[in-house]
């Protein structure tokens, strides 16, 4: 279908998209069975629900409508959104009554206006091609919770209600979602212990080939208004299956590592959330009051020896200082993991094999100040949030001085950072159904910002 448009028309549309204004100053489990390639190919076929069948019957008229639909109408709508955000950024907007602690935002007014524009205008089309368990579903518990819950919540949104972000009409869409799950591909397509990513990349490449040949939208912008989402460590690698997916499309990734090709102006960093049972722990459902109990411990960490940073942390601090509770495994008979977090002022969040760590979100749930120990990690929602208002960053080289660094944080700043943690908590919580400003909508807002082509580096 991509060949329907002339080469010259496609080039003009691509140039127009790339030259959008970028100077807006927004401060905002048993082993899986083996599968033959034929079975994988079958999962790429479109689902034949009654709604899909009726749309297929109307395909010729839809084709005519697509050709009649002025593509610049969507761009005019985005231009109106940009203008409203500019006005808010210039001081003609007020969000102080909306947010409990405006200082945690780069620009509360601009963020609030942008979010309202998203609620008012943003439409996402979810491609129907493919079948479960590789497409349209994802794991909704354990370390890949964010990936599975986002896919599932978006799939459950009614596209025909006339309300909400999802649309059944791709001509009205501002963004197009590729609903495959990398975690599911690893489970069902990857051959264990081979370290061979080729089957996963082959599936992603085939999926892109299917949607780009059946629909005109991928080729219309060279994929720049399409997005994928992955929390598996192999998400960045899988995206290399197609050069347009890797270079042009928006990649929403937990593994937001700039040394591995993550580009903050194009891609989206999303938080890694580990819900072991799929549900929030009961004692984490509500934020702890700021002064509800003492925090006698300076800092806490417990975790395995993954990657290059954690071994240094345990080598220097495991069992060395009662103020810094650093463990590989918690001692038998000791308090549970979250109890340690709730009794600590700082929660250490060192990278493992990859840059992201679920401890960042766990610390926020526990009202504990996250201490980011990482290189090249782009923190989630940094377009909008001032991480320096609710976290501390420590370079890996400063691990030997960790206690000195944390003790040097004035008590007044500890109280300020703790209040900041409580203020941003709502942005990192998964709800069902999703709620305003929660992690589901914050991810979509990050995609919305890229679709607006706002210069996020200057937020």
UniProtKB/TrEMBL annotation:
GO terms for cellular component: Golgi membrane. It is found in: Golgi apparatus membrane. Residues 38-50 have a biased composition (Basic and acidic residues). Its main location: Golgi. Residues 38-73 are annotated as: Disordered. It is a single-pass type II membrane protein. Residues 1-23 form the signal peptide. GO terms for molecular function: glycosyltransferase activity. Belongs to the glycosyltransferase 47 family. This is Glycosyltransferase. Residues 118-408 form the Exostosin GT47 domain. Keywords: Glycosyltransferase, Golgi apparatus, Signal, Signal-anchor, Transferase, Transmembrane. PANTHER family: EXOSTOSIN HEPARAN SULFATE GLYCOSYLTRANSFERASE -RELATED, OS04G0109900 PROTEIN. InterPro entries: Exostosin, Exostosin_GT47.
């Amino acid at each position: 279908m991509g060949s329907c448009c002339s080469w010259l028309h496609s080039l003009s549309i691509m140039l127009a998209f790339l030259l959008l204004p970028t100077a807006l100053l927004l401060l905002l489990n048993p082993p899986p069975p083996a599968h033959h390639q034929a079975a994988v190919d079958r999962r790429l076929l479109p689902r034949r629900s009654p709604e899909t069948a009726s749309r297929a019957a109307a395909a010729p008229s839809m084709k005519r409508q697509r050709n009649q639909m002025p593509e610049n109408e969507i761009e005019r709508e985005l231009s109106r959104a940009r203008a409203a955000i500019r006005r808010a950024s210039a001081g003609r907007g007020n969000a102080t009554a909306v947010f409990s602690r405006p200082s945690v935002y780069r620009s509360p007014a601009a963020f609030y206006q942008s979010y309202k524009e998203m609620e008012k205008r943003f439409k996402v089309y979810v491609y129907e091609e493919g079948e479960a368990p590789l497409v349209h579903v994802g794991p909704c518990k354990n370390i890949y919770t964010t990936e599975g819950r986002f896919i599932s919540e978006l799939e459950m949104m009614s596209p025909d209600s006339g309300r909400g972000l999802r649309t059944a009409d791709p001509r009205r869409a501002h963004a197009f979602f590729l609903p495959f799950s990398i975690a599911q591909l690893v489970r069902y397509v990857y051959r264990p212990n081979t370290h061979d990513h080729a089957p996963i990349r082959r599936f992603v490449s085939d999926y892109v080939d299917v949607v780009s040949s059946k629909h005109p939208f991928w080729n219309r912008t060279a994929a720049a208004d399409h997005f994928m989402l992955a929390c598996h460590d192999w998400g960045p690698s899988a995206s290399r299956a197609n050069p347009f997916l890797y270079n042009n499309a928006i990649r929403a990734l937990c593994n937001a590592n700039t040394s591995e090709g993550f580009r903050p102006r194009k891609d989206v960093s999303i938080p890694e959330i580990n819900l072991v049972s799929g549900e929030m722990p009961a004692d984490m459902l509500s934020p702890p009051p700021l002064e509800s109990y003492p925090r006698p411990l300076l800092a806490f960490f417990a975790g395995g020896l993954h990657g290059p940073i954690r071994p240094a942390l345990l080598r220097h601090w495991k069992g060395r200082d009662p103020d810094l509770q650093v463990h590989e495994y918690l001692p038998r008979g000791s308090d549970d993991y979250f109890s340690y977090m709730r009794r600590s002022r700082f929660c250490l969040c060192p990278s493992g094999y990859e840059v992201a760590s679920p401890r960042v979100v766990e610390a926020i749930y526990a009202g504990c100040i996250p201490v980011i120990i990482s290189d090249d990690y782009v923190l989630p929602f940094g377009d909008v949030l001032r991480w320096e208002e609710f976290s501390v960053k420590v370079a890996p080289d400063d691990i030997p001085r960790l206690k000195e660094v944390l003790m040097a944080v004035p008590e007044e700043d500890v109280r300020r950072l703790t209040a900041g943690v409580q203020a941003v908590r709502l942005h990192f919580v998964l709800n069902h159904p999703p709620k305003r400003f929660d992690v589901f909508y914050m991810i979509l807002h990050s995609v919305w910002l890229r679709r607006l082509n706002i210069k996020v580096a200057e937020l």
